[in-house]
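Build the 3D complex.
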Amino acid sequence: MTRPELLLGPDAAVAGPGGLEVRIRQPWYRSLPLTSVLGVTVAIDGEDVPADAIRLRVNGRSRTFDELAEVWDEVWFIQDEGAVEIAGVERAAGDDVDVSVEIELRFPYIIIDGVGPLTRRTDARRTLSVQENRP
Amino acid sequence: MTHSIKRGVSLYSFQEEFFLRELSLEDCIRISVGFGAFGIETIAEQMMPGFPNLTEDFYRRWDGWREQYGFQPTAHDMFAELKLYPDRERPTDELVADLKKDIDHTARLGATVIRILAATPAEVVELAAPYARDKGIKLATEIHSPRRFGSEWFESHLEVAQRVGSDVVGICPDLGIFVKRLPRVLWERSLRDGADPDFVKRVVDVYDSGEDTSILPVEAERLNLGPIEQDLAVQATRFIWEEPRRLLDYMPFIHHVHAKFYDIDESGEEYSIPYGEIISVLKEGGYDGYLSSEYEGNRHIQDAFEVDSVEQVRRHQEMMARLLDDEKQGD
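Done.
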């Protein structure tokens, strides 16, 4: 379930109220607690977005990754989008944008002997047409 | 030979289509029953949003599907979130409390077995066993590659089953412990990714001849091969082949079977797992539970092919029905 297309669909770029959003999916076969999302990195049109300009909105609530690390009792359902909110990057609906995104997940139930919990990075890159805002 | 083995599907099999929202939970049930697989195994964290706090509305919908499609809920697959906290271990009492929630959920579904994730500490299973017995639920630790029969890990779980009683605690062999030939979908993917064909052949030869696979990552490194070859070499060490007749040593403990498969080709055979041999052994041992189809080929082909889990499950069920000789079912 780590196919990049599953992470970043064709309608992933959205002109959100606070700037550009990249709607991603949790690329795994089961929902994971939010503390399992170790981080997301994004580059827009080839330019890396600083880590402190990124928040992730899941279940209608926007959080930093430090905040997500503490959320053990809420999961990201595998059919739901998460919105990567990017501060300081504005794009209008209809614009083309080149998006690179990488997510790192930690699987709290897969323990590799001598190593610890399995972590996995999945990345994807696509040129996307920016969509109107949607819920 | 007459037997009482039944066919089922783990809805894990449809993970790709479910993720893509092409199939719903109800669709997965309807499709499975359509293949004559009346045992339905579910993963709440996959298809039941809100778990472990599902509403009575959800359970009433589930009851309605049971009535409509006539299936038997078989197993609930639990997860032990052992490393939930980044900075500390999960306390045993929290894992036991989670497992009790799994037991309640399983009972409410009308299923009788919980697949216990292999990494779950045996102590957790033992502490939850009295509660499971009260609720009529069996706790079946999954025997999943690369874990083996007879290992220290296996013995610690078997001891619990012996102490508590095999009527409550047992095992769920995953047929991925009987991989006789390295799955074709695995090494074909490596070739597509540009792996050195000579090294791929070497990996397949070592695995299929039963030699020690631990030499393969070492060889990949010595040959200064790239990450694709090294990944294949490591993956080959995580597949195992157990002698199917070993199942006969543990028959009273076997409460459920994950009928793992990677690829059923057009001739209707699983390339890597000798189903005929395994099913003969299960018949001989008097197994009377479910063989629950668990398709896990999607991850190896999704780079190049449209995943069709439904067709794979259909072929797998057809193969199992043939090997079980379904008209002779029931004695």
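The two ends of chain A are 25 Å apart (CA to CA).
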